[in-house]
Design goal:
Helix 3 (55-62) packs across helix 4 (66-75). The protein has helices at 2-17, 31-46, 55-62, 66-75, 152-165, 183-191, 208-217, 230-246, 257-272, and strands spanning 113-123, 126-135, 140-147, 171-174, 195-198. By secondary structure, it is an alpha/beta fold.
Length: 273
Amino acid sequence: MGQENEKISQTLRATEFGVSRQSLYYKPKKPDKDWQLKCRIEEVLRTPGKHSYGSRRIALDLKMNRKPVKRVMNLFGIKPYRRRGGKWLNTKKIEHKFSNLLLTEYPAYPGKIWVSDFTLIPYYNQKIYLCTVMDLWNREIVGLSVLTNHSVQLVFNAFLFAIHNHSRPEIFHSDNGSEYDAESFVQMLAELNIKISRSKPGCPWENGYQESFYDKFKIDPGDPNRFKSLGELIYQIYHQIYFYNHTRIHTALKMSPIQFSIFAQNAKMQMQN
């Protein structure tokens, strides 16, 4: 009778989350292995002459089957360099102050690693910039900011939004943009004892999580010019991020970020009982 009640309880929980009952028993198969392969893939892409390698060439370089390479590249949003708008990759050595801690650190729990980036959303004759902060543990957007410029204030606002609702992270990762490199922003992270991590210059795939998020985010709302006012567009941006966090199924998680967080918390409580 007890086992039957447990089965009914699990079925009700699965219905609540909108997933199959079997998925509640799903446990990732050593996610650190995927992370290790991700680091190996990025190491190949950082090699001079291999920046544009796709999954097939990377698999040959690593002397392994292409299938896991392609799966991990899709999982972490890793994309090889592609020349755009007549611009070539700058291969000159650029001095950068901070190393990429994601090469050795794994997001094993909430707040371990936050990543951030911003993107341009054109609206008629205006340029709208969206900056987001993502917790790598469950891919939740924990902070965001929308401005008509990409000054350091855009980054500040997104970060302050995040720490207002969440505990400060151990690591904050971004690219080497001047907005993130502003002395005021770097000093604030240092005063909060947050480790700074940066993608290597010319290696956009090292922040592929945000790149992948923006690729999909820009598709879902449709044409920005369909909104009658800037206010309507900004409202839709906030609404879309709420939908992403609470409802949209993330392929790596098999559920939305918030659902994954609840599921992991319940699983932890069951293990403790």
